[in-house]
Amino acid sequence: xxxxxxxxxxxxxxxxxxxxxxxxxxxxxxxxxxxxxxxxxxxxxxxxxxxxxxxxxxxxxxxxxxxxxxxxxxxxxxxxxxxxxxxxxxxxxxxxxxxxxxxxxxxxxxxxxxx
Length: 115
Known about the structure:
Elements (H helix, E strand, L loop, with lengths): L1 E6 L2 E3 L5 E9 L4 E9 L6 E7 L4 E3 L7 E6 L4 E6 L8 E9 L2 E4 L3 E5 L2
């Protein structure tokens, strides 16, 4: 079993920045992709950004140019640097990792962008 722990969420003003971090623990062998998803109240969970073991990245159009995803393969951690935050970025952000063929999710961290 692998567990994911997110941190770094909080309240920020529009235009501000936050960095989310996620660390995997337990049976971490076989992790080949990492990423972040988010879910706003009343909405479906949506992809924010992913990064493969080969460092290829994929961003949602709504965050491209503002968010940057990175990973530390050796430590099995993934981070999301969020700049120029907008109120519509408000959501619970979930860490995601793919281990072998299975998707693993963190419990989520709240990001609130409000003036």
